[in-house]
Amino acid sequence: MKNPNYDIIVFGATSFVGKIICQYLCEHAKNESFTWALAGRSKEKLTTLQAELGEAGAHLPLLVVDANDSAGLIAMCNQTKVILTTVGPYDLYGEPVVKACVETGTDYCDLTGEAHWIKKMLDKYESQAQTSGSRIVHCTGFDSIPSDLGVFHLQQAAKAAFGEHCPNVKLRIKNMRGSASGGTIATALNIAKLVRTDPAVKKVLVNPYALCPENHGFKTRQQKDGIYYDDTFNAWYGPFFMAGINTRIVHRSNALSQHAYGTDFKYNEGVLTGRGWKAKAKARSIHWGLMSFYLGASLGPIRALMQKFFLPKPGEGPSPKAQLKGFYDFRFVGTTDTQQQIITKVYGDRDPGYGSTAQIIGQAALCMAQDVKPTVKGGFWTPATLMGKALIERLNQHTGVSFEVLSTETQKEEKS
Question: pLDDT tens digits, residue range 10-37?
Answer without folding.
Answer: 999 999 999 999 999 999 999 999 999 9
